[in-house]
Amino acid sequence: MSSLRIDWTRCDGHGLCARLLPEAISLDEWGFPVIGRLDDASSADVRTAVASCPRLALRVEK
Question: Which residues are within 8 A (CB) of 42 and not within 5 positions of it... i.e. 6 or more apart?
Answer without folding.
Answer: none
